[in-house]
Structures are given as structure tokens and as C-alpha cells.
């Protein structure tokens, strides 16, 4: 855990190096002339640059670089854009316009390299034309970057690599818990599989900007998905902790979590929504964890300590919570639980093997191993055994059935002579057979109860002979 904290502190210390250089912008009335933009009535931009639902011309005065490094104008945001430097057009991203019909949506991120000959000594005039009619949702800060930086700008490959490692780890954990749920049908393993899968999906969606330069109208869907996945993880976290450490109040805690976490959708800004959803889930999950500590439930103390660490890190470094910390902390939570669950399964399997060994000496019963444990099924109550891949279904008297972790071929040798293989996937108990009946071109065997079962043509002679012998034996 201390390594995780050290890594987060180091990454946070590097954050100022990656912050964008801001420019002083003016909003103007403008038109595109034959020799460049023609601007008038320029006024300082109050607040954020916001082209949503309109065409917006902005300008800034920048100094020529004092070194020979190449430069580019970086534009990131939910808008189409065109860029000019000293009346020379650097390029366009989509096609900004005065109406939604005329606008061609651009990419969310655009880079406009600046040729060395475009600069002039001293002050330089940078002009952008923006419009955003297809954003879908209204953002409080639609433009995330309007800066001039060295070109090419270093990518945060270390952050991206860590996010992908966390995502891969979480997907593996989701698969592991899914397998455990298939074997044991435990609710906790299903919730943990969902938690790991949701966190992995959020890591992938969070990284889309670095992997895929998508059209800006998709940004609203991406941000909504990030908040939705964060909210789902928070609700699942509360559900898991409450069911484990305060089960009598688990429904109440889940209901409260659904209401309170859903309310974070009303917060301004998607980053705030996401961080609030995660922090709310952690705070709510801390309540049943604290109850578990009070009641001395196993595992409650480390769970509460981990949640407190998560919360302290979120409060201390909120800017890194959605980008990195959440995925690492989610992986750090579910992986130890997966290891504990695997160890517990190993112990359960050893106990089941001991029970099977003890029960093997009972000749009138079949020892059934299933996800629920070990059960003794009386042979006289078995109507038929139906194969299903690596399992068999025991159809019992009274309409119930049992799943047995065995193959039909291996089970056939354990059953007494009163059981006969009538099909490649069926073994019948002749004591419960009523009649053999033709059904078109095929044959079916009827039992004292339950549906009939098919009989293969190659096994009919042996079945008829066995039924005759059984009939003679009953008449005697």
C-alpha cells in the first residue's frame, strides 16, 4: 500500500509540469476575409471560452518564441475550429459556422503546427474561429485547452501504461470472480466481478482521448459513461461491504447509495460528478465497515482502513482520482479479495474430498458433488441420469433434480445393474420405467413420472431385453 501512495505522490508532483499555458483571450465580431479574419468590437473574455450554441471569434496576442523549437497551437474541446496566426491560416478542424446545419463537427483534439516563417518579431496575432452546435450536453468548460506549446508535445505514456495495467488486472479479477460465481453461485463473488469489470471499463473509457481522436459530439457520451461507471462502482462497493459486514441493513444501505450517488449527477462539471460519486460511495461503504469493526467481523478492520486511505487520497489529490488513483485503488481492493476467495475455495474442495471419501462406502446412495457441496442421493429415487458436458443431471422422484460434477462415462461404472445406458447422453433406472413407445421414426422411454427420454436405435435391443428380464422378474 505504501508503494501505491508513493507512486501517487510522485505523479502528483509532476502534474504542474503538464499544466497548460493559458492565454488572455478577447471575444470579437468577425468574418473570414480573403486576406484573413476581419475582427471588430473585441472585448476580454469573462470566464471560460464558450462556443456552445454559437459561432465565436477569439484572439490573443502572443510573443514569438525565443528558441528554435517548433511550435503548434493545441485546441481541445467540444467545438469545430479554424486557426490563423498573423492572418495566415494554420488549418481547420471540421468547419465552424453560424448554424448547426452549416457546421461540420471536428475532432475533440486538434493540433495546428506553426511554420517558422509564420512568426514575426515581437507580438503575434492568434485568431480562432469556434462553433459548437452538436455537443449533445452543455458543458461548464467546453474548451479544455487553447494553448501554444512545443511540437510535438510529450505524451503521458507512463500514466497511460499504468492505467492499462490496472485495467488488465481488473479484467482478470472480473474473470476470476466470474469463474468463482459459476462454481459456487455466491452473491459476493458476482458483486466483486461486477466491481472489477466496471472499474476496468472506466479505465478504458478514461483512456479513449489518448487512443482515439474522436469527433467532439461523442465527448458527451464519453463523459456520461465515465460518471455512470463511477456511480455503478460506488453502488456496488456499498452493496458488497454492507452485505458482508452489516447484512441486516444491506437493503437500506443500497437504497441510500442509489439515491445519494444518483444525486451527484446534479453537480456542475463531469469531473466533479465523477469524484463526488466515488467519494460518496466510499463514505457510505465506511459505515457498514465500521459496524463490522464494532461487531468484530473478520476482515472489517482492513476494509475500513483501506476505505479511509482511499478517502484521504481522494481529498488530498482530487485531480488524480478519476485519472489514475481510482483504478489503482480498485485493483488493490479486489485483488486481495480474489486471493482470499481462491484460498477459501481450496479449503472447501479439500473438505468436500474428505466428505466424498467418507461417503463412498454407502452402496445404496450416490455421492453427489455440486456447487452447493456434497449430497447423498438414494439410488432408488433416481429416475434417470442425463449428461450435460462436464456435469450430469440426476432426475429424481418428486420432480427435483441435482447437478453432479461428473461425466456420464465415469458415472456409468459406479451405478448398479438396474441402470442401463439408453442413449449417448442418458442412463435410465429400469425400476421406474413404464413403457417403450414409438414417436414417429424415433423411440422414447416413459417413466413413472417426468418427461420421456430418447432411446438411440443401437441401444434398443439391449433395452428390450433388459425390460423383458425385468418384467419376468417382477411377475415371479
TrEMBL record:
<dbReference type="GO" id="GO:0016301">
    <property type="term" value="F:kinase activity"/>
</dbReference>
<feature type="transmembrane region" description="Helical">
    <location>
        <begin position="158"/>
        <end position="180"/>
    </location>
</feature>
<feature type="transmembrane region" description="Helical">
    <location>
        <begin position="303"/>
        <end position="320"/>
    </location>
</feature>
<dbReference type="GO" id="GO:0003677">
    <property type="term" value="F:DNA binding"/>
</dbReference>
<dbReference type="InterPro" id="IPR007492">
    <property type="entry name" value="LytTR_DNA-bd_dom"/>
</dbReference>
<keyword id="KW-0418">Kinase</keyword>
<feature type="transmembrane region" description="Helical">
    <location>
        <begin position="250"/>
        <end position="268"/>
    </location>
</feature>
<feature type="transmembrane region" description="Helical">
    <location>
        <begin position="326"/>
        <end position="343"/>
    </location>
</feature>
<dbReference type="GO" id="GO:0000156">
    <property type="term" value="F:phosphorelay response regulator activity"/>
</dbReference>
<keyword id="KW-1133">Transmembrane helix</keyword>
<keyword id="KW-0808">Transferase</keyword>
<feature type="transmembrane region" description="Helical">
    <location>
        <begin position="187"/>
        <end position="205"/>
    </location>
</feature>
<feature type="signal peptide">
    <location>
        <begin position="1"/>
        <end position="20"/>
    </location>
</feature>
<feature type="domain" description="HTH LytTR-type">
    <location>
        <begin position="366"/>
        <end position="469"/>
    </location>
</feature>
<protein>
    <submittedName>
        <fullName>Histidine kinase</fullName>
    </submittedName>
</protein>
<keyword id="KW-0812">Transmembrane</keyword>
<dbReference type="Pfam" id="PF04397">
    <property type="entry name" value="LytTR"/>
</dbReference>
<feature type="transmembrane region" description="Helical">
    <location>
        <begin position="274"/>
        <end position="291"/>
    </location>
</feature>
<keyword id="KW-0732">Signal</keyword>
<keyword id="KW-0472">Membrane</keyword>
<feature type="transmembrane region" description="Helical">
    <location>
        <begin position="225"/>
        <end position="243"/>
    </location>
</feature>
<dbReference type="InterPro" id="IPR046947">
    <property type="entry name" value="LytR-like"/>
</dbReference>
Amino acid at each position: 500500500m505504501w508503494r501505491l501512495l508513493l507512486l501517487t505522490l510522485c505523479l502528483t508532483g509532476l502534474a504542474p509540469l503538464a499544466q497548460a499555458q493559458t492565454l488572455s483571450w478577447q471575444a470579437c465580431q468577425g468574418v473570414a476575409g480573403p486576406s484573413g479574419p476581419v475582427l471588430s468590437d473585441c472585448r476580454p473574455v469573462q470566464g471560460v471560452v464558450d462556443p456552445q450554441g454559437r459561432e465565436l471569434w477569439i484572439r490573443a496576442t502572443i510573443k514569438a518564441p525565443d528558441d528554435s523549437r517548433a511550435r503548434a497551437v493545441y485546441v481541445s474541446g467540444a467545438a469545430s475550429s479554424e486557426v490563423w496566426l498573423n492572418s495566415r491560416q494554420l488549418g481547420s478542424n471540421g468547419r465552424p459556422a453560424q448554424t448547426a446545419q452549416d457546421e461540420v463537427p471536428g475532432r475533440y483534439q486538434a493540433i495546428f503546427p506553426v511554420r517558422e516563417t509564420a512568426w514575426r518579431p515581437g507580438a503575434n496575432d492568434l485568431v480562432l474561429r469556434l462553433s459548437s452546435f452538436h455537443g449533445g450536453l452543455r458543458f461548464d468548460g467546453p474548451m479544455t485547452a487553447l494553448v501554444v506549446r512545443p511540437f510535438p508535445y510529450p505524451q503521458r505514456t507512463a500514466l497511460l501504461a499504468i492505467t492499462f495495467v490496472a485495467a488488465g488486472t481488473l479484467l482478470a479479477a472480473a474473470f476470476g470472480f466470474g469463474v468463482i460465481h459459476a462454481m459456487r453461485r455466491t452473491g459476493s463473488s458476482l458483486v466483486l466481478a461486477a466491481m472489477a469489470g466496471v472499474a476496468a471499463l472506466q479505465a478504458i473509457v478514461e483512456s479513449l482521448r489518448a487512443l482515439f481522436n474522436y469527433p467532439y459530439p461523442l465527448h458527451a457520451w464519453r463523459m456520461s459513461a465515465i460518471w455512470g461507471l463511477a456511480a455503478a462502482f460506488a453502488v456496488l462497493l456499498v452493496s458488497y461491504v454492507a452485505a458482508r459486514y452489516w447484512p441486516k441493513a444491506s437493503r437500506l444501505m443500497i437504497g441510500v447509495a442509489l439515491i445519494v450517488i444518483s444525486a451527484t449527477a446534479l453537480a456542475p462539471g463531469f469531473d466533479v460528478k465523477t469524484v463526488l460519486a466515488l467519494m460518496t460511495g466510499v463514505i457510505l461503504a465506511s459505515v457498514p465497515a465500521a459496524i463490522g469493526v464494532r461487531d468484530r467481523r473478520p476482515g472489517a478492520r482492513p476494509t475500513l482502513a483501506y476505505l479511509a486511505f482511499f478517502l484521504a487520497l481522494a481529498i488530498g489529490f482530487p485531480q488524480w482520482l478519476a485519472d489514475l488513483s481510482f483504478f489503482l485503488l480498485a485493483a488493490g481492493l479486489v485483488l486481495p479479495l480474489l486471493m482470499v476467495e481462491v484460498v477459501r475455495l481450496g479449503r472447501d474442495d479439500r473438505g468436500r474430498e474428505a466428505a466424498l471419501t467418507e461417503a463412498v462406502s454407502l452402496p445404496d446412495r450416490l455421492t453427489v458433488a455440486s456447487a452447493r457441496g456434497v449430497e447423498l442421493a438414494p439410488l432408488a429415487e433416481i429416475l434417470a441420469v442425463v449428461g450435460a458436458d462436464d456435469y450430469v443431471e440426476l432426475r429424481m422422484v418428486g420432480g427435483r433434480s441435482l447437478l453432479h460434477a461428473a461425466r456420464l462415462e465415469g458415472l456409468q461404472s459406479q451405478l448398479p445393474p438396474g441402470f442401463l445406458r439408453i442413449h449417448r447422453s442418458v442412463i435410465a433406472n429400469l425400476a421406474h420405467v413404464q413403457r417403450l413407445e414409438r414417436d414417429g421414426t424415433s423411440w422414447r422411454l416413459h417413466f413413472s413420472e417426468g418427461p420421456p427420454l430418447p432411446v438411440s436405435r443401437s441401444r434398443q435391443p439391449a433395452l428390450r431385453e433388459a425390460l423383458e428380464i425385468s418384467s419376468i422378474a417382477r411377475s415371479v
